[in-house]
Design a protein that fits this description.
Elements (H helix, E strand, L loop, with lengths): L12 H7 L5 H19 L10 H7 L3 H13 L11 H39 L8 H7 L30
Helix pairs in contact: 3-4
Length: 171
């Protein structure tokens, strides 16, 4: 039983606190206080059963057989340590491995998106500054956003408000 008692907390509370959003700091403090309370309650009891001097009780009591019965029962007393009968720890560790594999896939996808975004930024850096760009240059660089003189638009000059994008417009 001596090796089973946790000497220090397995939780890195400082790292945990860094990851808690500002709006949930109070809940985190309550959770940490409750955890500390549980650990304090566990540590207030001795790690092993206290030793009882049965010899002094044999001298004091008239029936030493009763003391011997109690001594044998006390020696045979074992308090079982909780076991994981349903293998919950194994299930959690397998789920953790699956989540880690999924996370690696997500990280790879995000790294690909980052590299695409960096390429786009490099392309945008090659463009002239907006105050130096003319309408013709804008039309060359961004043909889908440029004003087409062959196809005038109606106020408020946004695509959703144009007649071709409004169902049943003047039909």
């Amino acid at each position: 039983m001596a090796g089973k008692r946790v000497a220090k907390s397995l939780v890195d509370w400082a790292a945990f606190a860094e990851r808690v959003p500002p709006g949930e700091k109070d809940i985190f403090r309550l959770f940490k206080a409750k955890s500390t309370g549980f650990i304090t309650k566990i540590h207030q009891y001795p790690e092993s059963l206290p030793a009882i001097d049965f010899a002094s009780y044999k001298k004091l009591l008239k029936n030493p057989k009763l003391v011997e019965t109690f001594e044998a029962g006390y020696a045979a007393l074992t308090i079982p340590y909780p076991t994981d009968k349903e293998n919950i720890k194994g299930a959690v560790s397998s789920e953790e491995k699956e989540a880690e594999a999924d996370m690696k896939k997500q990280v790879e996808g995000l790294q690909a998106m980052i590299s695409e975004a960096e390429l786009m930024l490099k392309k945008l850096d090659t463009l002239p500054k907006p105050h130096e760009m003319t309408h013709e240059m804008f039309a060359d660089y961004f043909p889908e956003s440029a004003v087409d003189p062959e196809k005038p638009t109606m106020y408020p000059h946004a695509k959703p408000y144009q007649p071709e994008n409004i169902p049943n417009f003047l039909k």
